[in-house]
Amino acid sequence: MREGPDDVTALIRRAKIYDQVAFSELYRRTVGPVFRYLSARVNRAEEAEELTQDVFLAALNGIQGLRAEDEAGLLSWLFQIARNKLADRLRQRYRQPLAPIEEAEELPAEQLRPDEAATAREVQAEIRQALAGLTDEQREVIVCKYVLGYDNSRTARMVGKNANAVNQLHHRALASLHRLLSRPEKVT
Predict the structure, then answer these.
(1) What is the pLDDT of residues 104-148, one digit of tens each?
(2) How many angstroms separate the CA atoms of 19 and 14, rounded?
């Protein structure tokens, strides 16, 4: 039920003058992609939820400075805020001392057997580490295509490139991921 680009443009204009209904509609349309974008970068869903909330609070506070007039521009702006909020969170985490184990949160009950859950966590860690080995542009393309489900033209609008450049970044990213994930295990 996507309306046309003119509708998004009108919603953005109305949101800039603090129209709550317009901002709510923009939120409804973009919260899913922003959450998935952040979920691909953090380990816990709760952290992605908190960051998503921070993104939209910052967006509400800065909506008058938004220059975008279409959905692609709006999402690019929100993803930039998300990158900044994530960087702030990481800086904050590294500045704080680690909590004693007694204060650690209780792990949620998992449906997998313990050995399956451990294997799944190991695979996720390997994938996150491999993604960290990509360039920022390659990582953005992979997130847009596989986490957000965008095609090359929409991904191109999100990352500010043309579709051919996105296609090249995509192929290079996949080759790098294959190389990084296919490395033989290190002998210790």
Answers:
(1) 555 555 466 777 777 777 877 788 888 888 888 888 888 888 888
(2) 5
Distance CA(119)–CA(4), nearest Å, equals: 44
- Count: domains in the chain: 2
Q: Are residues 91 and 117 in the same domain?
A: no
In which domain, by residue range, is 147 found?
Answer: 111-188
Question: Token pair 């279409």 is at which residue?
Answer: 70
pTM: 0.61
Token pair listed for 9: 């443009």
Other beta carbons within 10 angstroms of residue 81's beta carbon come to 19
Helix residue spans in the chain (DSSP H): 5-16, 20-39, 45-62, 71-95, 114-132, 136-142, 152-159, 163-181
Pair 8, 71: CB distance under 8 Å: yes
